[in-house]
Amino acid sequence: MDRLSLTERAAEILETANLLSKELAQGGFTEPSFEYGLPDPLHDNAPDSKAGAARQKLLQILDELRSLVTEPALTLTVELVSFVVYILILILNYSCIPSSPVSLFYCIDS
Hints:
mainly alpha; elongated
């Protein structure tokens, strides 16, 4: 995960929101609003577009910001989670002893 500060992340959010607004305006669409809802290019089933890509990036950045200000220690990258799971599987496979507590959940006695 990157090491952006809160203000750098906020600047990235603003930049991406401005890009999204610009892409929608160029396509003749209004911005999302509670009054009018979501414009067509931003629906999940809409064809790929720059506006759709900007929406996805904005949602990702907002998720990262939320994780950062709620509990950053619990936020792991997919690569790190995959690595940790891989290591745990290796450990469990090599330490499968029927008398160990691990065997109750993972090992199958032959």
